[in-house]
Amino acid sequence: MNMLVTIDSEVKAYIKKIMGQLHKWLVSGKISKLIVAITSKDTGEVVERWQFDVQVLSGTVSAAESGSSESAKEPDHSKPQEEIQKEVQAIIRQITASVTFLPVLEGRCTFNVLVYADGDVQAPVEWVDSDAKTIKNAEQVQLRSFSTDKHKIDTLVAYSLGDA
Amino acid sequence: MENLEIKNRNLEISFAKVEEELDRTQSELFAKQQTIIENEETIMKLKNELAARGRKRSGAADGNDNNEEPDMEFTTDLFKRELNEQFSNVRSLESQIDAKNRYIERLEKDKRIVDIVEQEKEALETKLKLMSDLQRHNTEMELQIIDLQQEKNKWLTFLEKDDRFSSPQDVVRELMNIRIEKTTLLSKIGQLEESLSSTTSQELEVSQDLQKLKDQVTDYHERLDKESQQRIRYQRQADIISKEAQMLRDQLKAYEAESVALENKSADIEKDNKITELETLVERYKQELKGLNDELVRKEGLVVQLNSPLRNKKRAAPDSEGSDSKLAEQLSSTVRKNRSLQNDLDKSEQKVAQLSHEINALQKQIASASESQQAKHRILELRDNPTSRHEAVKVSTLKALQKENDDLHAQLSNSGNQANLVPKSALDRIRDESKQLERTIQEQNKRMDRIKEVFAKKSLEFREAVYSLLGYRVDLLPNRKIRATSMFTTSDTDSFTFIPDPKAKNKFIGIENSPWAAEFENLITFWIKERQDIPCFLSALNLELYDRTTKAARF
Fold this sequence. Notes:
- The structure holds 2 protein chains of 2 kinds.
- By secondary structure, chain A is of the alpha+beta class.
- Chain A has a single domain (about 10-160), classed as HORMA domain (Cell Cycle, Spindle Assembly Checkpoint Protein, Chain A), CATH 3.30.900.
- Chain A is built from 4 helices and 6 strands; from the N terminus they run αββαααββββ.
- Chain A has a 5-stranded antiparallel beta sheet, covered by helices on one side.
- Helix content of chain B is about 85%, strand content about 5%.
- In chain B, strand 4 (about 495-500) and strand 5 form a beta hairpin.
- At the A-B interface, helix 1, strand 1, strand 3 and strand 4 of A face helix 2, strand 1 and helix 6 of B.
- Chain A: It comes from Sugiyamaella lignohabitans.
- Chain A: This is Spindle checkpoint protein MAD2.
């Protein structure tokens, strides 16, 4: 199974911009979902929707908020790096393997990244509110999840079955 | 805005055209004027000639030949005709000039309008910029408003019960008042406690004093009792003594009477002595009695003196009876402690009430927050994302097409004779399309470049691999020929060029003649000409060349 990495400068810039802001939100625990929506260029309909549920585990946020007072109490059940990487690898493998069951994307498509943030989040000017871009009559498949000391990520893909 | 711009551009183009035309007409005018001047000159010349001829004719006799006269008339007619023509020409030119002038005036007016429109456009652009600034500002403000709203909600949960306070200001003001009151009360309490402690200590002192005085009083009482007993004793003694004196006097009287009766001289002296003795004794007793009485009187006076102030003091502190000074001290300290503990208790209770209120408010807040959690999730996306970019392109294309369509419709309904022309919007749209096509061409070129890059890299890699594995550098030549250079040759020219088989693809039939090839004639005949096996020839050649190198000589 091949995994391709983009070298398009525009896409790279876009992702870089998103990642910078995501990092800030993740650190402050303001984020609950990350969506990659694939939209048909012709009809404008969402045809595939990758959803990553982010759970910022409690304790880390409070530690971050209350400053150094809590930081001394590091979690004891710290996960080794290799294990986390193994879990991430498993997810990526599953995502690439999902080509086998996902319907073939017809026509030219484009994509968009959505962020479910808390209501009180401070959004920069470049970020605007959006609709959820959900798929009607969607088929959903739950994929693997992985967790670190601070986060738990669940993966879910939704896709439309076309006319069926 | 777009309309204005298009209009503006149109006007500018027409204006340029008009200016050009103006220049042209002016030059034409100039030329025409020149020709007029020339014509006038010729007219003058002709007139002069005519006059000269007239003079000549008048100068000549009447009998001059008649041949000339019709000729002259003919020429004057000709002149007149030409003159008329010229006049009409001049007039038409003048009228043309007038028309042009009017046209220029109109254009100048148009130009002024264009200027105004441009100024308006600039003003609108600045306004637009201002508007976008305002919009950004607006979004920031909205965020701020959300924050403030949340803060307000927090306040509201606190304020719900109390109708007294309608706003946080009231609460804060009340809080301030209460704080001030509290500080004043605290200071008052401090003062009171101080005074209380001082009074208790004073009280202690006083009770101690009282105790002392009581002790004194009991002491005095005892003394008084003693004194009174002594007095009674003295009294009795005095009574006894007086009785004794009486008895002695009686005895003396009796004795005198006896002595008178007896009349004994010797006994008289003795008797006198005895009497004086007894008299002195009596005298001494009397003195003693008197002293005792004096003393008694003095004592009584003292007792009275002692009793009077004591009674006063008793009235001043009537209730502190029987308590030890130590006990009183302990009691006061316990009382003080008790009071402070009471105060502490009050404070704690107040705190508890406050905290429970706060807890209620917080619980409410949590409930509302969790309620709104689901609803208040904000879904955000980057403004400049691929989907919206694509949508924007779609929308703009649609707009352009609609405009074009409208224009075409308008044209179609307006006039049938201009059917060959296309509205400007169509041109714009086509330009946009061509731009887009250029962009796709660019993309394709980029892709091609990338593929070429990869191909070059890979082919180089392949050649290197062939070189290191098989020992030949392979170069593709035109005409499908292939040149192979062994890694063991000393110079680049020492290479073989293989001739391809014209019938079959990817087959070679021989080697081009060269001095280098001639050197290995035997190998070529053995392998290629006889066996037609080029790979074996190349291997044999490599072995041959290897034997010649210095590397082989070393082993």
